[in-house]
Amino acid sequence: MPDNKMPGTGAKGTITVNMQPVGRRVEISPGMSLLEAAQSAGVELASLCGGLGVCDSCKIRLVRGELTPPTIEEQSLFYPEQLEAGFRLACQAVPLGDVKIDIPPESLTTPQRLQIEGQSAEVELAPAVVGADIKVEVPDIHDLRADTRRIRDALIASGHLAGGGALRFSPVVLTQLSKQVRDLNWSMRVARHGDEVVSILPIDTAMVGLAVDVGTTKLAAYLVDLTTGDTLVKSGAMNPQIAFGEDVVSRIAYCQNHTDGRRTLQRRLIEALNELLSEMCRMARLERDQILDAVVVGNTAMHHLFAGLPVNQLGHAPYVPAVSEALDIPARELGLELAPGAYVHLPPNIAGYVGADHVAMDLATGAWNAQRTTLALDIGTNTEITLNHNGRLLCCSCASGPAFEGAHIRDGMRAAPGAIERVQIVDSGEGAKIRLQTIGDQPAVGICGSGILDAIAAMLQAGVLDRRGALVGSHALVRWRDGLHEFVLVPAGETGHGKDMLITRRDVNEIQLAKGAIRAGIETLLAEAGIQSQDVQDFIVAGAFGTYISIHSAIQVGMFPALPESRFRQVGNAAGAGARQMLVSVQQRQIAQEIAARLEYIELSSHPDFTNEFSHRLFFSDFKKEGLTAEHAENTEKIRQKKK
Amino acid sequence: MPDNKMPGTGAKGTITVNMQPVGRRVEISPGMSLLEAAQSAGVELASLCGGLGVCDSCKIRLVRGELTPPTIEEQSLFYPEQLEAGFRLACQAVPLGDVKIDIPPESLTTPQRLQIEGQSAEVELAPAVVGADIKVEVPDIHDLRADTRRIRDALIASGHLAGGGALRFSPVVLTQLSKQVRDLNWSMRVARHGDEVVSILPIDTAMVGLAVDVGTTKLAAYLVDLTTGDTLVKSGAMNPQIAFGEDVVSRIAYCQNHTDGRRTLQRRLIEALNELLSEMCRMARLERDQILDAVVVGNTAMHHLFAGLPVNQLGHAPYVPAVSEALDIPARELGLELAPGAYVHLPPNIAGYVGADHVAMDLATGAWNAQRTTLALDIGTNTEITLNHNGRLLCCSCASGPAFEGAHIRDGMRAAPGAIERVQIVDSGEGAKIRLQTIGDQPAVGICGSGILDAIAAMLQAGVLDRRGALVGSHALVRWRDGLHEFVLVPAGETGHGKDMLITRRDVNEIQLAKGAIRAGIETLLAEAGIQSQDVQDFIVAGAFGTYISIHSAIQVGMFPALPESRFRQVGNAAGAGARQMLVSVQQRQIAQEIAARLEYIELSSHPDFTNEFSHRLFFSDFKKEGLTAEHAENTEKIRQKKK
User: Fold this and answer.
1) By the CB < 8 Å criterion, does A166 face chain B?
2) Beta bridge partner(s), residue A394
3) Could you report the per-residue pLDDT of B46-73, keeping only the tens digit for each?
4) Among A32, A581, B28, B239, which one has the highest count of C-beta atoms within 10 angstroms of its own C-beta?
5) Please, what CATH class does the domain formed by A208-356 belong to?
6) Dihedral of alpha carbons A191, A197, A198, A199, sign
7) Does B327 touch chain A (CB under 8 A)?
8) What ipTM, to 2 d.p.?
9) Which residues in A339-360 are b (16+ Cβ under 10 Å) and which e?
């Protein structure tokens, strides 16, 4: 480091801001705020209030270095323990030297939100498919060994196979082998899955795997280099099965009511994946022959429909899956266009409504072997929850419905350009004003899950809603039309489609059902473990939707317990991350099977606690009271720990 | 046994004749010949000369009991050691009490010769697919195990699976499993191939396997009960690939010259097998779901074309197979319509022209572990030969051509009704007459392999042919027409199609090429082993054609060495028998792999001995001299053994 530079600053008097996990560094002039730093680096930090410090949309966390002290605005927005944990507003905080900051995913705006990168644990590479470059002896009249035999002998001679080691060839590889080895002039890379040769490639060809999270709504796919573990390209698409039913239950009903229904659903899904894969291969300049392995996760119904298994029995109690153990199915049997001999690994399912995607999430988040009491959930049409308390793993699934996907909401839409993703109500009484942020800063055309959650939370805080979810007619932002109260989110003149955007009592009810089910599920698991919400030390929120919600809002509406925000961790598509971990490591597949064996499934539909909790949790609680309770609990805990 | 009956005879003064291996017993009056006995029992013993004792077509061997002494006719037809071994003419021999006789396959006439039962060794049953009848616990709200899991648990509970034992489900079984187990009301027979469930059946369903010998010309198929080892039904068909080339070389050429050629050939073969299987299932009242396993053998080209492997490299030196090791391919990948999860086992190949069918033959005949010096061959378009001398296994393949299949012969045809199968020339000089026997005793329409071999042998003996294979113009049975000599086998008036049936010089040449190649192959192996033909103690002739030929004729034309006939054993379709052995026993599959590992392949095309022998063996030898040589050798051997 040069001597003439100020301590803690970069060369020439500039300051370096290192932004994680996006991995961007930028040099700024002293005095610039973190928001300005982010903007100058092209990092799209959210800024709902335009840098006034009155919303928390540009929230970041200081990892290293020093910032100006918290402003009055920050002191009023954050709890003391949040400030202590390093949470700040990027618009308010100015670096005093080189700093490293962490930008939570919900503070980033992204034009298209299908492509979600989940956090993946560090995994030692041990892919199921390995390659060996060999030079094979050429046949002549004195050496009549079969092609397979001379490949085997070359593998042994080059130390890639023990002398007595087993070696099989995928039947489909055999159909091309003799031509291939001659075209390659007897030098080749042999790709093996266990003891089976799944592809013959030119020497030094990159070996790639495919990880897919098949969501009920969205598909997230990743191409991963099997020799480095690097994600080469990621992409997303809608699950085309949506045309046959928005949620799992309606798709099962479709299969029950249509001959060949499940084959139709399977075919549509596979076609969509093949298209997605084509596009990804094009982007990464890869050939299909190089996609040598795949791991596919999804909920149990998606798992069954992907593998072509019957789903009728998932449609009625006791909701028994056809298969729970891990499967390895030749890709060609499914019609998935990978390398000829490639397999698709499907990790184990737990129950009819807790699938391999949840196992993958438990794996990727580390919830399965956490030392602290940890709750991990993935919010979707069904919300699956795992609670790890003293090493006991409890899990359940609650039917939270598609409201957070934008369905069943009057002006709901998926997270796409023009969707309102952040909502705030500022000032009060007659002067109350609504502030919005849309994806891509485009004129609003609808509201997505994180937006509706924000809206409900803001409406509660501003007194627009009462505890039962009714719109308060006397509030300045509520109007009376056609015999109903409605909350005008955006007047017609300001929307992208020229019509009023409203939130109605029905919309509020949908969110009440969703958040009530999720919270009741959480509480039921806690009760099973004999603990209370305050005992949860790590609260992990996974999934695309969970990544973008405001934890603040989720607590405010009562969906999450009022724990200190520092205990929450939003991890993105952890199911996809878990799939990638299993793609590059057979040990991770083994761990997934251990997780599946350890998970105790709690069936909520017949659980008395759940029914009670659900009816109770439909209402909204007094947020301020809950907030105090949380702080109180935090202090109680500290005192308790000191006593130990 | 009643006291009042004559010693050695049945009740009421009748005599019992027990005929093996056909397994028929008949009561006859004293004084009746064995031929009359066979006729009264409906056993179709050949009788070319009509019972005159001047041909050996009704040759049998006495196993137990007493017959009238050999007639003058028998003494002139058989060598003393043959008579000593019990060989007799059924038309001449009259039982003196209860007798048991063995009827060699070549002494039986059969209307249609595609269905060949090979002799199969006694094999301890250890099929790859085993069944377990279980009652599975029904799911309820307190028992949410997946269907696969509860089947596994039921297998463990019923002692069919060790607690930690592996269990997988074929993906295709999973696609139906949940519906099936509910339709079966949770009681079922689980069929497993190794640790993989390949079919779910009703309790007590018969479990059946398919064994197939895919010949270049003919398909022989057997349905075998896997729990008893019994052959339930056997059937045959022509190999439809004949339309694309009569022999292996022309089919390989077809594949080289046509895009998708090998896929066409594969598809046609599989279609034919599916049709054959349909018919067999109908006959045995079986469903496809019950056909749980298959073993398919064939020469290397048939093996490759069945499995969809490339054959181009089999078309030119050094004739290297794509694969030599044993394969297990899911039947569904081949399009073969067995039980959903069934596999097809393909035993190992040895070389480009020594395939799994030859390994199967070595297995079924016991040639692989014979204690005596044993030569075993299967005559076809290619003739594969194994020589076992002091435990060393040598093998080779000679291109004997399709003459014995009736191809390239002016009036040749396959062994089908109307084909001449036996030929004899009686009397001599101007009075020389031809005696014939056709399959099914129908008017002659052509001549099949055993017939043409008999004809050439008879022509040699009668002086119609000289040693070089030329027709002797001065012979009464040879005529001169259109500048060529021809032998009129059947004049136009006596044939089924109203045209002369001839044997031409060209026909003779075809047989010279065939027999020359076979004999040269035999001699080359003997030379490799450092022994002479007289040292061969057991000479096993396998294959449909080999079963029906006259050993006498084969020796006479010089195709086989002039060993005593008692050393020859005609065993029928031994490849098919070996396939059936492997179908019912995984140990037999293991032995086949040991055989393949032990067989030393001798490439004849580059072998100097072969070229010399071949040009030498094209000519005919002096049969009588060879005969004396054989007798002499026999005596020499006896003396040698006494000296030891």
Assistant:
1) no
2) A387, A600
3) 776 777 777 777 889 898 999 999 998 8
4) A581
5) alpha beta
6) positive
7) yes
8) 0.74
9) bbbbbbbbbbbbbbbbbbbbbb
What percent of chain A clears pLDDT 70, i.e. is strictly above it?
Answer: 91
User: What does DSSP assign to residue A585?
Assistant: B
Residue whose pair of structure tokens reads 């298969």 in the numeric block: A323
Among B449, B439, B451, B412, smallest CA distance to B113 is for B439
Task: Identify the closest residue of chain B to A174 by CA–CA distance.
Answer: B309
Which architecture, in CATH terms, is A11-107?
Roll (3.10)
CA distance B177 to B490: 64
CATH 3.10.20.30, chain B: domain bounds: 11-107
One-letter amino acid for residue B385 of the chain: I
| Tokens 């202090």, residue located | A635
Cβ atoms A616, A412 nearer than 8 A:
no
Once rounded to an integer, what is the mean pLDDT over residues B119-125?
Answer: 71
Cβ separation A349–B146 shorter than 8 A: yes
Indicate if the pLDDT at residue B628 is higher than 60.
no
Question: Percentage of residues in chain A with pLDDT exceeding 90?
Answer: 61
Return the ∠ at Cα A447 (arms to A443 and A448), rounded to 5°.
120
Residue A119 has pLDDT above 60, yes or no: no
**SS3 of A148, please?**
helix
User: In degrees, to the nearest 5, what angle opens at C-alpha B221 toward C-alphas B216 and B223?
Assistant: 165
How many CB atoms neighbour CB B328 within 10 A? 16
Q: List the structure tokens of A361.
A: 């999430």
Rounded CA-CA distance A509/A507 in Å is 5
Per the listing, tokens 């299908």 go with A114
Shortest alpha-carbon distance between residue A568 and chain B (Å): 32
Q: Which of B549, B538, B545, B543 is nearest to B572 (CA)?
A: B543
Contact A177 B320 (CB under 8 A): no
Closest CA to A34 of A123, A114, A96, A110: A96
Judge: domain A372-395+512-643, CATH 3.30.420: yes
Mean pLDDT of the B500-511 span: 92
**Which spans in A42-92 are helix H?**
72-77, 80-84
Which long-range contacts does B80-86 make (Cβ < 8 Å, 24+ apart)?
B81/B564, B81/B566, B81/B631, B81/B634, B82/B564, B82/B565, B82/B566, B85/B61, B85/B565, B85/B566, B86/B61, B86/B62
Cβ neighbours for A231, distance < 8 A, ≥ 6 positions apart: A117, A222, A223, A224, A225, A580
Rounded distance between C-alpha atoms, residue B485 and residue B467, angstroms? 16
**Which of A139, A149, A318 is nearest residue B318 as measured by Cβ atoms?**
A139
| B129-201, CATH topology level | Ubiquitin-like (UB roll) (3.10.20)
pLDDT in tens, A420-466: 999 999 888 888 899 999 888 888 888 999 999 999 999 999 999 99
| Pair B351, B397: CB distance under 8 Å | yes
Residue with tokens 């018969």: B206
For chain A, first and last CA: distance in Å? 46
* DSSP strand pairing (A208-214 vs A291-298): parallel
Ranges for all domains in chain A classified under CATH 3.30.420.480: 208-356
Q: Which of B145, B148, B351 sits opposite A144 (nearest CB)?
A: B351
Closest Cα in chain B, distance from residue A351 (Å): 7
What's the one-letter identity of residue A69? P
> In 3D, which of A537, A510, A534, A533 has the Cα closest to residue A521?
A533
Q: Does B145 touch chain A (CB under 8 A)?
A: yes
Q: Report the alpha-carbon distance of residue A251 to residue A244 in Å, rounded.
A: 6
Residues of chain B with CATH 3.10.20.880: 129-201
Q: Report pLDDT for A636.
A: 43
Predicted confidence at residue B121, as pLDDT, reads 57
Q: Is the dihedral of CA A620, A621, A622, A626 positive or negative?
A: negative
